Each structure stands twice: as C-alpha cells, then as structure tokens.
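Input (structure):
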C-alpha cells in the first residue's frame, strides 16, 4: 500500500513540475535580413542572411546583410535573444549614398519574408506583451516603413504605416492550445535622402501565464474531505501498528 507520506511527496513533486513548466511550447523562429542596391531603378545587387532555429530557443542569434553598387551601400543587421517566454530583437538599417544627386541611386530593405519570427503553442491562457522603440532615421524619412507585428499574417500591433519615429507597448491575449506564428515585418527604402540614413529599432517581448484560478468553495470542500480521508487512513495505520 502506498503510504500517505509517499502520496504527499508525489503531490508536491507534481506541483513543483507544474510550477516550473513554460507557459508555451516553442516550435521555432528566424531572422531574415535582406538588402538591395539599385542603379538606374533596376536591381543590380542583392543579399540575404537567414538564420533559423527549431524546438529549442538558441539564446542569441544574429544576421547581417549588405549590398552595394557604385554610389550606394545598404546594410541590414539584426541581433535577437530568445528564451521560451521572453526576448528582444534589435534592428540596425543603414543606407549610404555617396552621390545623392545621381539619378536612380536607391537602397532598399524590402523583405520577401518577415525579419523576425517566433512560432509556439500556448500551454496555458496568458498574454504576449511587446514594447518597442524606434530611433531615426537620421537624414529623413522618405519611403520609411516600420516593423509591424503580425500573427498568421494579420496585423495585431506595433507602429503604424509611415510612422518612422515611434515607441509604445501592446498586449495580445493567448489561448491555451492554440498555435501562434508571430512576426515582425518591415519594408524600408531610402531613395532621395541626401547622404542616406541610419535607423534603429528595438522590440522587447515577454509571455506571462494567467494567474491560477482560485478554487470554488465546492472544490475546497472536496480537497478538505480528501485530506480528512488521508488522515483517517493514517490513524488506522497507527492503531494497527500497536496491535
């Protein structure tokens, strides 16, 4: 027969395991940095640096893309940190025009895929919160777009279109059992900005599990009855031990 002590130890162990569980199950994520350098309004060079992970968050991850043509240099960099329930990603976009008066010189950071992604399953009801800060662009804001936050491709928060200077926080509810495909996507160009531009974006995020629900009075009654039964079993064991 399993002793009361053994049963309680198993209960405590189960509670500890539940407390240490993540609020989500990570599936994967990515960084995708792309750049294009244009001359005469035709793409002459392009580059991409794509980094991906699956199942286990990598901790830190970086990607760096650079494209250049005579008169224009474009660089797109990102550094990200992931845990299952928190992280941050920083973007640094730079375009340099050596001859701003030359016709057709153009740099672009127009991505065919999201710059940052995180896919996971929500194990419990909770909330995803992201705080962002945009700095720049130094030199102007012509054709400046922002990183917009999406889930399954649908906009859910972040800076609005053509708002190059912004900061804020938003929160999205998570439902237990659902799969989420979160992404930060940006289309960004700087044609016509004398000398080019330099622009930074920082996005910090976290996932919090909803607080456990307080048991109803009927549940408390069942718990007390159960512990009372355990106590009765323990007393019976003591009486038998004295016979």
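Output (sequence):
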């Amino acid at each position: 027969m399993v002793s009361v002590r053994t049963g309680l130890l198993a209960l405590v162990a189960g509670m500890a395991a539940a407390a240490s569980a993540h609020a989500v199950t990570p599936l994967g994520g990515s960084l995708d940095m792309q750049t294009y350098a244009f001359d005469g309004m035709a793409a002459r060079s392009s580059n991409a640096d794509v980094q991906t992970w699956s199942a286990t968050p990598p901790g830190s991850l970086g990607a760096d893309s650079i494209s250049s043509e005579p008169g224009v240099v474009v660089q797109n960099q990102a550094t990200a940190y992931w845990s299952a329930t928190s992280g941050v990603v920083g973007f640094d976009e730079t375009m340099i025009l050596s001859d701003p008066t030359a016709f057709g010189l153009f740099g672009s950071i127009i991505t065919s895929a999201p710059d940052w992604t995180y896919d996971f399953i929500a194990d419990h009801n909770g909330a995803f919160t992201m705080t962002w800060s945009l700095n720049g662009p130094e030199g102007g804001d012509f054709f400046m777009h922002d990183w917009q936050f999406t889930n399954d491709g649908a906009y859910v928060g972040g800076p609005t279109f053509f708002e190059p200077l912004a900061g804020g926080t938003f929160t999205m509810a998570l439902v237990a059992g659902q799969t989420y495909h979160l992404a930060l996507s940006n289309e960004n160009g700087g044609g016509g900005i004398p000398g080019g531009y330099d622009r930074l974006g920082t996005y910090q995020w976290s996932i919090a599990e909803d607080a456990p629900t307080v048991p109803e009075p009927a549940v408390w009654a069942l718990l007390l009855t159960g512990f009372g039964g355990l106590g009765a079993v323990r007393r019976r064991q003591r009486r038998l031990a004295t016979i």
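Notes: The first strand starts at residue 24 and ends at 39. The chain has two domains: 21-209, 213-243.
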